[in-house]
Amino acid sequence: MTERVDTLVVGAGVVGLAVARALARAGREVVVLEQYNCVGSETSSRNSEVIHAGIYYPTGSLKARLCVRGKQLLYAYLDRHHLPFRRCGKIIVATREAQLEQLASYREQALANNANDGEELAWLNPDEIGELESEIDCLAGVLSPTTGILDTHAYMLSLQGEFEAAGGMLALNTRVESIDTTAANGPILVHTSEMTLAADLVVNSAGLEATRLLHPPQPTYYAKGHYYTLAGRSPFQRLVYPVAEAGGLGVHVTLDLGGQAKFGPDVRWVDGIDYDFDDSQRAAFVQAIRCYYPGLDETRLQPGYTGIRPKLAPVGDGASDFVIQGPAQHGVQGLVNLLGIESPGLTASLAIAEAVLSALGVDDVCDKDRGPVA
Question: Is 0.85 topped by the overall pTM?
Answer without folding.
Answer: yes
